[in-house]
Design goal:
7-stranded mixed beta sheet; globular; Rossmann fold; single chain
Length: 222
């Protein structure tokens, strides 16, 4: 997290990680299309022949949450192709939270596992402990044949510490829920480490309600 005391702005970095073509870029595109133009900035992408995003996407979401403080979320994706590991490690530098985007198809199980282990390794290389780092898992492409059942995902969620979300990113389904889940876990850890409530008057629950409101999520649905 970066703190600009002069402009009273906090910047939180969230990274979308996962195997190639699991839907990382599609998640950011969906968020960009679902939130209001007043909240989101320009979505930047770089298309390549061997992967959809060679470097990263950067999507700044800015929320004025009262107390004279603005909170800016910067969302990145990493390239999924194995050959771009150095870039993935670079993008993870300074990450406050990570969403792992998995492909729900059973045929992609090995790719998911390898990418998850690679994410943990690159977090460690950046001095970030995967055991305490805020992580959520999204199983994307739920509309395709040959995917893991809901029951399987529920069993996996019970075994792990990371919350599990289901999504069809091409339709925008589950995308905002994943973002909110990651935001909540990340913000609570930042509060523990930096006492943001004490320093800036940012009550965690009030802040998270403000984020949901700016995203157009009814309180009852939160």
């Amino acid at each position: 997290m970066q703190i600009d005391f002069k402009s009273r702005e906090l910047t939180v970095k969230l990274v979308y990680y996962g195997p190639a073509l699991s839907g990382k870029t599609t998640n950011l595109q969906a968020i960009h299309s679902l939130v209001s133009p007043e909240t989101t900035g320009r979505l930047m992408t770089l298309e390549t022949r061997d992967d959809r995003t060679l470097f990263f996407d950067l999507l700044p979401l800015t929320f004025d949450v009262g107390a004279g403080i603005q909170v800016r979320f910067k969302l990145f994706t990493v390239p999924g192709q194995v050959i771009h590991n150095a870039t993935r490690r670079l993008v993870l530098q300074g990450a406050d939270g990570t969403a792992f985007i998995a492909d729900s198809q059973i045929s992609e199980t090995r790719s998911n596992q390898q990418a998850f282990l690679n994410m943990q390794e690159n977090l460690r290389e950046n001095g970030i402990d995967p055991a305490t780092h805020p992580i959520v898992i999204q199983f994307n492409k739920r509309d395709l044949p040959g995917v893991r059942t809901d029951e399987e995902l529920e069993r996996m969620a019970k075994k792990g510490r990371e919350p599990v979300f289901k999504a069809i990113a091409t339709r925008g389904t589950g995308v905002i829920e994943t973002f909110l889940g990651l935001t909540e876990r990340t913000w609570h850890q930042l509060e523990e480490r930096h006492q943001l409530h004490e320093k800036f008057g940012l009550d965690p629950e009030v802040f998270l309600r403000g984020v949901r409101s700016r995203l157009g999520i009814p309180e009852a649905a939160a």
